[in-house]
């Protein structure tokens, strides 16, 4: 149980708050790459602040597409920069034509072409840094110098990319606490799934049946916390225990197996809104994965037209649990037990990281060294279920809303056949 002050400290992400100060040490996705190819300016809300993210018409010095991000409000009269005009070297406010470069410096005042550089220096707009990686536009809006944008394997590996996303009306932290809560798989995705299947007359995914836990474990490492589980029928050489999968500090989880690799990305939009992305890459053994021109993105459904939660798929069950806790969980009323050791470990990590950020130190998982790929631990044989796990995750997961869902299932089925996985059930 926490005090109200402790709960506020953990959940408030705005400027000047302890958690907000910490979270501004990291990069966040703020748009899908496709969106800025369709139109070069988009509104983005991040960490309780409103921004305009944009794509420049010409590549940067490295030959890659160039992007920028500025405060939504023009410093002249406060009009929205989301309705600005992107030019070769910056963005111009649509209202009066004030122009700003990628650093936020005012470089031209349309009505006063002879304005002095000294005056324009006082007219800059708040800005951050923006880059493209893996089909997403990422932004850093903290104090400089910006760290490296972490190139986790999900964003740079070969495979078919599939990005499901939606905005959820709850605080990001209650979603992150779910990432270090192994037992909910046994109840929510097991017993409750079977209960629904029985009463609503659909087939329960066999890969999620009978996942009874014998023990769980958590190991702190340089990018967060590795979560391990040992299920009944497994031994300590099983991937679920020997390898596990990590919570990637401060707002992601790397999960998957059997040819599906997924980074779950929980972007803190503000105190009561989270942009929840399921960023999946499909690359099963046994088949040459075709090249993909662009990542496929789509909104998954989580609530029906009657206001009921859609709980007949895996992530829909998670969303129900996250959102029904309230927009911000009242942790002054919770009853923490020894089975919640992962949640306790995560809260301790956040408190220590907030102290580091307040002292001007780099907190955990801030990457300063240039790199090509950051490889994180991840089970390959999830729950010991084989390729069955992959196809059922598509059928009874958020990926069922993907426009390429059928093609993804065919990919895994063909790969399994090529591997000779005749024992797998599909």
Question: Which key phrases capture this entry?
Answer:
426 residues; Rieske Iron-sulfur Protein; 12 helices; alpha+beta; 25% strand; Naphthalene 1,2-dioxygenase Alpha Subunit, Chain A, domain 1; four-stranded antiparallel β-sheet; eight-stranded mixed β-sheet
Helix count, DSSP H or I runs of 4 or more residues: 12
Query: Mean pLDDT, rounded to whole units?
Result: 94
Which structural class do you get from the secondary structure elements?
alpha+beta
Task: Return the CATH architecture of the largest domain.
Answer: Alpha-Beta Complex
Q: The CATH topology of the largest domain, please?
A: Naphthalene 1,2-dioxygenase Alpha Subunit, Chain A, domain 1
Write the layout of secondary structure elements.
Layout: H1 4-11, H2 18-23, E1 28-32, H3 33-38, E2 41-46, E3 49-55, E4 67-71, E5 85-87, E6 90-92, E7 99-100, E8 106-108, H4 117-121, E9 129-133, E10 136-140, H5 153-156, E11 160-168, H6 172-178, H7 183-200, E12 213-221, E13 224-231, H8 239-242, E14 245-248, E15 252-257, E16 260-270, E17 273-282, E18 296-299, H9 314-323, H10 341-358, H11 387-395, H12 405-419
Parallel strand pairs: 11-18
Antiparallel strand pairs: 1-10, 2-3, 3-4, 5-6, 6-7, 7-8, 9-10, 11-17, 12-13, 13-14, 14-15, 15-16, 16-17
Can you describe what's shown?
By secondary structure, the protein is α+β, with helices and mostly antiparallel strands. It has helices at residues 4-11, 18-23, 33-38, 117-121, 153-156, 172-178, 183-200, 239-242, 314-323, 341-358, 387-395, 405-419, and strands at residues 28-32, 41-46, 49-55, 67-71, 85-87, 90-92, 99-100, 106-108, 129-133, 136-140, 160-168, 213-221, 224-231, 245-248, 252-257, 260-270, 273-282, 296-299. An eight-stranded mixed beta sheet has the order 12-13-14-15-16-17-11-18. It has a four-stranded antiparallel beta sheet with strand order 5-6-7-8. A hairpin with a 6-residue loop joins strand 6 and strand 7. Helix 11 packs antiparallel against helix 12 (405-419). The longest helix has 18 residues, at 183-200. The two termini are 44 Å apart.
């Amino acid at each position: 149980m926490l005090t109200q002050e402790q709960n506020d400290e953990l959940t408030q992400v705005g400027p000047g708050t302890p958690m907000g100060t910490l979270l501004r040490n990291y990069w966040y996705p703020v748009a899908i790459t496709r969106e800025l190819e369709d139109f070069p300016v988009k509104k983005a809300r991040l960490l309780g602040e409103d921004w305009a993210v944009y794509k420049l018409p010409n590549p940067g010095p490295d030959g890659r597409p160039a992007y920028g991000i500025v405060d939504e409000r023009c410093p002249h009269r406060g009009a929205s920069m989301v309705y600005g005009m992107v030019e070769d070297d910056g963005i111009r406010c649509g209202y009066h034509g004030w122009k700003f470069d990628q650093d936020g410096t005012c470089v031209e005042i349309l009505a006063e072409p002879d304005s002095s550089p000294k005056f324009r220096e006082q007219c800059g707009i708040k800005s951050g840094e923006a880059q493209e990686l893996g089909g997403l536009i990422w932004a850093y809006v903290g104090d400089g110098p910006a760290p490296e944008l972490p190139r986790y394997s999900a964003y740079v590996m070969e495979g078919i990319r599939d990005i499901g996303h939606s905005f959820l009306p709850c605080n990001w932290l209650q979603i992150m606490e779910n990432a270090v809560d192994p037992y909910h798989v046994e109840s929510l995705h097991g017993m409750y799934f079977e209960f629904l299947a029985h009463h609503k007359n659909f087939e329960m995914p066999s890969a999620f049946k009978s996942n009874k836990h014998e023990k769980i474990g958590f190991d702190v490492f340089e990018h967060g916390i590795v979560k391990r589980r040992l299920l009944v029928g497994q031994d300590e050489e099983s991937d679920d225990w020997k390898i596990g999968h990590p919570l990637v500090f401060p707002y992601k989880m790397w999960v998957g197996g059997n040819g599906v690799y997924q980074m779950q990305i929980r972007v803190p939009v503000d105190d009561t809104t989270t942009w929840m992305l399921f960023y999946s890459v499909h690359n099963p053994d046994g088949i040459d994965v075709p090249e993909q021109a662009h990542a496929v993105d789509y909104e998954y459904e989580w609530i029906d037209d009657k206001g009921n939660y859609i709980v007949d798929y895996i992530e829909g069950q998670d969303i129900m649990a996250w959102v029904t806790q309230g927009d911000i969980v009242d942790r002054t009323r919770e009853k923490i037990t020894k089975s919640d050791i992962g949640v306790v470990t995560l809260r301790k990590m956040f408190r220590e990281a907030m102290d580091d950020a307040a002292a001007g130190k780099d907190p955990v998982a801030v990457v300063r060294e240039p790199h090509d790929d950051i490889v994180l631990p991840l089970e390959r044989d999830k729950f010991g279920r084989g390729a069955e796990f992959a196809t059922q995750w598509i059928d009874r997961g958020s990926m069922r809303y993907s426009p390429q869902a059928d093609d993804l299932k065919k990919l895994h089925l063909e790969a399994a056949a090529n591997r000779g996985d005749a024992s797998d059930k599909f």
